[in-house]
Give the backbone structure.
Amino acid sequence: MADGINGLTKVCGIFGDPVRHSLSPAMHNAAFAAAGLDYIYVPFQVAGDKLPDAIKALRALDLAGVNITIPHKETVLPYLDEISMEAGFIGAVNTVVNRQGRLCGENTDGRGFIKALSEQVGFNPAGKTALVLGAGGAARAVAVQLALAGSAKLLLTNRSRPRAEELARLIAEKTGAAAAVAEWPAQVLPHRDSRMIANADLVVQATPVGMYPHTAETVPFPFELLKQDAVVCDLVYNPARTDFLKKAAHFGAVTVNGLGMLLYQGALAFELWTGSPAPVSVMKDALLKALSPATVNE
Ligand code: NAP
């Protein structure tokens, strides 16, 4: 916000339930202030059955745009006027942009993930093999975007195998990329799966296992099979170094946590709403400040 709220201030926000602990208001308000833009970002608690009313309000109040979070990322699609290719493939929207009254649904999670890997460790997925653990919303965004970014092969594994199979089918059908399903790592791995893990250039941990306060938990994974210098990313960002990342680092992996994805999905949303470049370092500082120092510094 430039000089306080006034009649011209543009309003962005987040629709979700719960939203009380969202880090996005701190990140976006710091960004608007740093960029000198007359915008504010407000968290809106929107219960499951209130989404249609909230979208009507978005139109009536002419909000500039909103982020969409749990539980609305999938159910919001029918209420929007346009859906981007990525959001359509992923089947979920995390950002709505109000373009002169037309509500456009975007998904910046997957692109934010790819950007974070590129900025933080110089990883480009084109031609690479990637293993994704999990098949929920975050895994879907990451896997679809990896396929769109030219990954040579995707290997998917999930505690409930049918969800991984469904995701593999979706990727093959929508993007044409090669996608296979491996046994969930807790089980004894067949040779074929061990070989695929050993060939993976990138491993993405996309389940909530290990997230604060359950920091002692780790997805069972054969870390000893990791390729030397494989990039291992845990989408969890609190704590900053999960047990999964510590174990992967022990076996020589280059490790990345989920903060970069959170940051860059926000930076991309900021750019969609304002048309201005996102002040990424300001946004990162705001995120770090909003997270508990005790856990971030672990
Ligand atoms: P979700 O849609 O609820 O999916 C959860 C996934 O984790 C499912 O595949 C689920 O397997 C699996 N899972 C849950 N508990 C498990 C357990 N105890 N053992 C093994 N697998 C388990 O959640 P999501 O939205 O994808 O979020 C997943 C994680 O990513 C969360 O930690 C979230 O904070 C993080 N995330 C980070 C960012 C970021 O910007 N860094 C963005 C989005 C999400 P089943 O199918 O078997 O239930």
